[in-house]
Amino acid sequence: MLAKVRIWDIPGGIHPEEHKHESTQHGLEPMPLPKQLILPLLQHIGARAEPVVNIGDRVLKGQLLAEASGLVSCPLHAPTSGTVTAIGPAPYPHASGLEEWAITLDTDGLDEWTELQPATDYSALEATTLLDMIRNAGVSGLGGAGFPTAAKLKARPEQKLHTLIINGTECEPYITADDTAMRYKAAEIVAGIEILMHILHPEQVLIGIEDNKPEAIAAMRAAVGDKPMQVIEFPTKYPSGGEKQLIQILTGMEVPSGGLPADIGMVCQNIGTLIAIHDAVLLGQPLIKRITTLTGAALQHPTNVEALIGTPIRDMLNFAGLQPEQLYRLVMGGPMMGFTLQSLDAPIVKTSNCLLAGTQAELPPPPPAQACIRCGLCSEACPAELLPQQLHWFALGKDYEQLKRQHLFDCIECGACSYVCPSSIPLVQYYRAAKADIRAQDLQQHKADHSKQRFEQRQERLQREAEQKEADRQARAEKAVRLKAAKEAEAAKAPEDAPATGNAEPDVARMEAKKPSGLTPEQKQLKIAAATAQMALKKAQKQLAANPDNTDLQAQIPELEQACEQTQRAYDQGMGEAAVESAPAPASAATDDTKRLKIEAAMLKASLRKAEKTAGDTPTDEQQAEIAKLREELAAAEARLPNDAKPTASAGSNQAEPETKAKKPVDPVTQQLKTDMAMAKAAFKKAERAVQADPDSAEAQVALSDAKQALDIAAKAFAEHMTSKERA
């Protein structure tokens, strides 16, 4: 025998007219199958579902249409069989009237089910398996904000849930969806409770129902029987259906400010959610339908219907006998916490528990707001024991810090304060706007903190890299010092070891066979020139193999081969002379210098041709600077050649020389100024790219300013030179 539960009271609260009997006279009626369903991808709190079907696909009833895109998200299923005709913005039931992404499904009337996989014996399954079944069925809260049920049931390890509370209160006027469900689906509700008991293992289960629902109370008690759960009847008062208020009524415990029921070991579930859990586990059916109240003086036939998710509101109102000429305001939800709909084309969603079609006499426009008279009625009516008057003033002044201190987010937006206000001040609207502003401000601050953290981490990384580079440099320097000291020690030790052979005369054969340990500066230059010429030849041959029709490359190959041969011969001669001659003849040295200068000139000429070809007809500033620099180096190299070795336009010259010498001579001063200006422009472009890559870098900004100043000076010098040249 279960102990009798004590009933507690909540602070504040009001008693508005109920208007519930109008919609309970016709029982629970099935809604005809509509021709088209609009299925928004966002019917819950959290991330929007992601479509897994395409336009033109035929789907079956219960088939997955969109999958959950996060932990706090819900999948979406087809309420009936048909064809997907659109995926995109569509009418959406929201106070803003804005559209939302949705899947449009044209029904085929066959109502053909997909293959279902119900649990034959859920008591043999683990809690995680049942939670996955509930999550995959797309079950979310059907009586509140639509929080995904599986995420709500999955408590943290430190939270031991000891009490399961079933919310059958439905305290808001006009709404009777849960009342009707308890009357006609009590067995399914109790089965859903038993599934939750198997998952949570609570110590007690409390079913709270207001005393204005005697038929529902009787049906639930009959379905519960001797099962370990209690149906508790308590006095009617609005808003006793709030989650925190119901917990206080049934247990006397209060959820801490800013906390959740799980923080005190409790979890609440709605009547409609329990039916969806029953269907998901025992029948294998996803959440594709719900019970919705159709009421209001503008309807001839107010009732409760079991409708498919996505049914257009216009079809539902027409089923209930809508009188368009009498419709003044259409509200989704109740008159206290609901919102006005802007379009009849929007569909019902998982959280649509009521459609209130009111006349002007039933839902008159609010009177103009007057000044606050400080009567204090709002404070007396507040079930959260807040100070609505203070919250109003702070919201007007946008004093968000004070609003947080006054626990603005504990407000459940029940509307009790606005209902009793003699000045007709829309207090709840002020609170909603202030909450939205605070959330936006917190999000902006979070982004700023994240950006600051990333910047600081980058600075630390750059500092670590700089320190590592400095450490590596010092290590290399120390290693070089050690190697140098070792070589000097070996060099000093070698003369001391030489007399130890016992022969005063040097071993000529051994000395001649021994290779020199190092190269002279001239030999190093010859070796570098030979290697460079060979590399250029190989690169040109590789390019010619890839482009056999390139005439320029064909003309360069013989010249590069000749340069390669000359450099290699010069290097071989230099190495041979070093082995047999201690002091080469002056004539031979002059010949080698001439060869080396010719090789340098040939290599520069090849590089110049390649740069000109790469630049094409429209060279960039950097390419112009590079070409000018190569021309200067080529002219300097040719100037160092002896007069008898300077290139001429004879028949023995290569094919590219006449074309080069045919060019109009350029004033060296003009060429130099033009080169300076091109190089300054290239430096300015480089500084600009550095600023674009890192706009916050002070060094980059200074470099850009210096480059701009250098470019202006170079351009001014070039312009002045050209002006003076024209005058001359």
Commentary on this structure:
One of its GO terms (biological process) is electron transport chain. This is Ion-translocating oxidoreductase complex subunit C. One of its GO terms (cellular component) is plasma membrane. [4Fe-4S] cluster 2 binds at residues 382, 411, 414, 417. Helix 17 packs antiparallel against helix 18 and helix 20 runs antiparallel to helix 21. The chain has helices at 127-136, 149-153, 177-184, 186-200, 214-224, 243-251, 271-283, 313-319, 377-381, 388-396, 400-405, 416-420, 427-497, 508-513, 521-546, 551-580, 586-615, 621-640, 657-661, 668-693, 698-727, and strands at residues 28-30, 36-40, 50-51, 58-59, 64-67, 76-77, 82-90, 100-107, 163-167, 204-210, 230-234, 266-270, 289-295, 303-308, 329-332, 339-340, 354-358. The chain is 48% helix and 11% strand. The protein is α/β, with parallel strands linked by helices.
